[in-house]
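Entry type: protein chain
Record version: 2
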Amino acid sequence: MSVNLKTKYLGLSLKNPLVVSACPLTQKLDALKQIEEAGAAAAVLPSLFEEQITHEEVEMAKAQEFGTDSFAEALTYFPEQDDYRAGPETYLEYIAKAKQAVSMPIIASLNGTSEGGWVRYAKLMQDAGADALELNVYFIAANLDMTAQQVEQQYLDLVGAVKKSVSIPLAVKVGPYFSSMGNMAKRLAGAGADGLVLFNRFLQPDIDLDDLETSPQLELSNRYELLKPLRWIAILHGRVKASLALTSGLHEATDLTKALLAGADVGMVASVLYKQGIGHLSEILDGLQTWMEEKEYESVDQLRGSMSQENCPDPAAFERGNYMKALVSYAGEAI
């Protein structure tokens, strides 16, 4: 039996539903080639951070102003900032190199919280050859005077501004911390998001007891983290006009299969590649194909969303209805 693994994500035609998410691996051309050879359908480049943009532009402004009070020639020594190639140009150059090195779609990534230089760099990434753009919104609402409405509006304004600056597809990677995730997903799509990547893994700072300083902690994902995006993709499938990508906790073929059943267009991996190696991509795809053949699915299109809330025989399973059942089933194990 021949199984068709082709899918579409952000309007891009992909040979299968497995995508490598933003990680240091995709920053290396040799690794990027191996990722394609192992079967990945697309790759997201590591993010260009808002802090990088801001830092480089501030440093350029300082250089322009240096000595202007004393030396008349300094007023024209540096080029105008609009004409100067300010910012991390190496990132833009890498996009072009990546496009030459592989044939799979390359998705650029921007990480930050405000419009700032994002609009400009989104356009530059498009001009460098990126097939799509992933907006990685990393925002912790630590201002106690900021309301939930203001937080959400900041997301929507950012998405709208970036979308207006590019013609390539725009995906938005967000965290799950909204009081009404479904409504926010709908509004993000309305603001211009062509796709939603669920969910962003916010890094949690730890405290160093020796130096009495905060220290960032990076933990690779585990398979339990799959459950949260799995639930929300199942809820959103068919109800939000945007592509859906599941990220966080996808490690095995069974995880990708579940993501597709819930309604994801693609599943994204990163952490497992550090544990199992890039070659594990082919194992995931082989496992998906084997399962589909056993269950007599002919294509990913036929499989996708068949276990979403919209199509599930027990829609309450994705809401509160299954909560008591889960608790009761586990109670005996503690005795």
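Comment: Residues 57-87 have pLDDT under 50 and may be disordered.
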